[in-house]
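Dear Dr. H.,

I hope your travels went smoothly. While you were away I took the liberty of generating a structure for the chain from your last submission, since the lab meeting agenda had it listed for discussion. I wanted you to have the full record in hand beforehand rather than looking at slides cold. The sequence, exactly as received, is reproduced here:
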Amino acid sequence: MELSKNFQHGEAEQRWYEHWERSGYFKSVPDERPPYSIVIPPPNVTGVLHMGHALNNTIQDILIRRAKMEGFNTCWVPGTDHASIATEAKVVGMLREKGIDKKSLSRDEFLKYAWEWKEKYGGIILQQLRKLGCSLDWDRTNFTMNDEYYAAVMRVFVELYNKGYIYRGVKMINWDPKAKTALSDEEVIYKQTNSKLVYVRYKIDSDKEEYITIATVRPETILGDTAVCVHPEDERYTHLKGKFCFVPLVNRRVPIIFDDYIDKEFGTGALKVTPAHDINDYNLGLKHNLQVIDTLNDDGTMSEAAQLYIGEDRFAVRKKILADLEAAGNLVKVEDYSNQVGFSERTDAVIEPKLSVQWWCDVEQLAKPALENVLNDNIELIPAKFKNLYRHWVGNIKDWCISRQLWWGQRIPAWYDSEGAIYVATDAAGAHEQYKAKKPELAAKQPELRQDEDVLDTWFSSWLWPMQVFGWNKDPNNAELKYYYPTSTLVTGFDIIFFWVARMAMAGFEFMDEKPFNKVYFTGMVRDKEGKKMSKQFGNSPDLLNLIEQFGADALRFSVMISAPAGNDLLYDESSLEQGRNFSNKMWNATKLVKMWESRIADGVESNAGFAIDWMEHRLADASAEVADLMKDFRLSEALKTIYSLIWNDFCSWYLEWIKPAQDQPMSRDVYDRTINIYESLLQLLHPYMPFITEEIFHSLRERKEGDDLIVKQLPTTKSVDKGILKDGALLQELITAVRDTRNKNQLKPKETIKLWIDTAQQDFYKKVEPILARQVNAEQIGFTAEPKQGSIAIVVQTDKLYIEADAANVNTGAQKEQMQKELDYLKGFLGSIDKKLGNERFVQNAKPEVIEIERKKQADALAKIKAIEESLSLL
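The corresponding predicted structure, in token form, is as follows:
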């Protein structure tokens, strides 16, 4: 097979992905092999590939491909989440562009448009994952609004309702005025915000001209005040017990109440109480039996109950009311103030606390096994530091607001009769059966039951994901669920540790009596070089499809993995794309070099490459064992660095140079075959990270039978490693580097030969590597000596002294002397630090014996090198 000048990544990516898929390598059915299953964190159906997806899905693909090579029956399930809020917003926007107002449509008409939008755009991100090389079992693609999935959500709602975990009630909720829906506490992001602290005085209802001053950052809510509260022990206000005051502008007479909830030190020590618009005020209102006045409409404008500014936006009113308060004589002062403000995670709108009738799930009991099984490591979190975050969330859990005021999503399976009674069933027929049983006399008249208008929180469906993708609802005892569940590893961002991870654990223990996954690997957040989160909103997130087109999927995968430690943020630098592409080019050029030798193969050729081959095979075995340990510990970035160095440095830069036949000389068949075997093993190590180029090179090296593909090639058994030959190889590299550097510093031309004399106690080693060493440093002769060679260039490598004889005209004795003096000064400083450490009694007493032994070895080596350099300097 003739290789192109450069690796054509675009053509190779399409060809190999189609081949893998056509060959059924992504498909999985239960068999006698151990399973390794992963369910994809379902991306929003509105989504397109971004840097976070690239990191998360590359990690999953690495785990799947590695497990496949280890003999597991791998199953990676794809799918998308219907994303109620995001998708509805997209559809509303599309309708607006067509001149259609959602309010003018019936629910069924709107849903028709929504499904059309989903069919057109909903699969984009899944197609993009193919471009990234993700080996997903596409036959298993799921969607949280599929009929069977929908039915599972209905079943879970009904079962939890019947157990008493789900109920309907009025509570203070987080209201998103832009999406016009309730949000859970976990969907609110608090940001430090520069605000204004406004001091306003309320006139006391008395014969005197007396006022009480409050401080607020939300002056627009003054119109809903129904009390002013002070601390019982605040002497400034004890005389106001039993008194009333008037709310400015609307002149509402409200009581002055006393409660130890108040912080006497904040502001003036007096608090305006607005039960409809603050959770703490609401609790005060319940305790003191206060009136509740809701001054805000669902869209964030002022309601008729506000009496003033009706229909105007809350933030416009916030500015406008200051002038009116000042004109009325109630504004005292305004100060700059920094505070935490809640924003909607979905729309970035400022959240409004709002009293509302919603559906709730009491998760206190559901959370207990979900917490216990993480704390006892039955579910292992990686890194383990996230156990504390998980404990905080799940240990302080509140009732979950599960209803959303939207049309796109799973509609709540609750029906109401004309008297307001509730019937919960998986479908309308079941609700009517309940109605007939409960009120037969009314049912005979066939009245209509009205279904709840709200849909369920998206997380209420995705918490069933690991169960339902394997058909839990249809048959909880089916063979696939038994085989693949619990799944092996979940890969996700730590930001949804409560949203999704904890809730899947709750659902798993409640409905399967089993954990949903064995391990959870948390990725960090992808940030740019300045540390800012990569986001289209900030304009710092690149177009990944363009990057794949320009650099290749392998280079992109390399770029996100080379510096992505588990759980820690990734500072993404696009220069790593260049590094990934250069790595591909390095391997491609190495492949072309090896293939050139194929035509020069001859039998019976004596080779001096024995040491090089033995060293590379043991280096490969050593690195393979290291990679296996790193992968087992989910240190995927470190494993890639190990493989990268092994291929770039050890194989390409050293090994291929050591075995390269001289010009016009034949290549030993044994050396060639063993080199191909080594290269294939290197490609196999790298394949999970860079699947396309490794498969391409694998097939370029030899003719392959059908089915002989790298993606399914099983990893070999671990080989024992000779540490001695690894040490010899490292010494040979050091020798070659030292002699080459010395040649360069002394301006010895590459073609100019040298004689190399060595003063060493390990002559057997030098005799073994002499052919390689001589050729690599262009030495016409290598010999041994116990005496310094006058007029030669002296260097020290470890404890050996080497003398280079060359044309005296080209020897720069002064530069050599200067360099050796620098090294001597460094070594003396280094020795001093070691002596100081070993002279520290506390260190010697507390350090482990092996640590002290390492320091003494460093000391002895430094002393030997210093002695050798000093002797060499005396010759110059």
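Two observations you may find useful: The CA atoms of residues 142 and 469 lie 7 Å apart. The chain has four domains: 27-157+458-544, 181-353, 573-721, 750-873.

With kind regards,
E. W.
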